[in-house]
Amino acid sequence: MKKFIGIIGSPSIETTNEKLLSLIKHAFQSEFELELISVRDWPMFNKPISLELPAKIQTVVDKIDTADGVLISTAEYDHSVPAVLSNALAWLSYGQYPMVDKPTLILGTSYGRLGSSRAQFHLRQMLNAPQLAANMMSGDGYLLSHALRAFTDDSEFARAIDRTDLETYINRFIEFVDHNKRTDVQILQAKEVAANYDKRFIRR
Question: Transmembrane segments in this chain: where (predicted)?
């Protein structure tokens, strides 16, 4: 069975992005395992000279390395991603590059009608950075608008159209993962490209 990592890109304790990923985890449990990871309490990125990552972040890096794919669900703050998600990506692009060539699906919720579309645009740009270089499914990510009204008390979708749209995206992503399998050698080569970029352009 496929194993995916779901990154909750929001600082909120009761975030609709976590509700979305939790719904996916249970609705598609016969298709894949989804482990949810919150980045809310990660330490601030401080570019350690030793390249040694904090233990909790190293654990996540190891899990992403062995996962078949990653789902990132982002909130939208000031038309962009929350600081906690930007901070997490800084750690995930430092020294080990677990996101490089990793099949990745972007999702997001917002209280308004645009469903985090502007944050997802910025997130896609960030994931294109050489030290991240995620293998993203083409097209727009999954957008959940008016998220405060989107879920029932038992954490199901209140609107049937949201369930239909989500199933379309998830099924496309499963096919995307199947068609984008990489050998260990290919992954190592891709990570070497990211490492060489870091050597040439050291972040100051």
Answer: none
Please report where in the chains the tokens 């000031």 appear, as a residue: 78
Q: Would you give the distance in Å from CA 154 to the centre of its chain? A: 25
H-run or E-run covering 88: helix 83-92
Q: Which residues of 139-148 are buried (b: 16+ CB within 10 A; e: fewer)?
A: eebbbbbbbe
Q: Note the pLDDT tens digit of each residue in 22-41.
A: 999 999 999 999 999 999 99
Q: Where are the domains of the chain?
A: 2-200
Predicted local confidence at residue 33, as pLDDT? 98
Residues 71 and 53: their CA atoms lie apart, in Å, by: 22
pLDDT (tens digit per residue) in 68-85: 999 999 999 999 999 999
Assigned architecture for domain 2-200: 3-Layer(aba) Sandwich (3.40)
**Cα torsion angle, 106, 118, 76, 55, sign:** positive
CB atoms within 10 A of CB 70: 24
Among 166, 86, 71, 176, CA closest to 122:
86
- 138 phi-psi bin (left φ>0, alpha ψ -120 to 50, beta other): beta
The span from the CA of 184 to the CA of 60, in Å, is 19
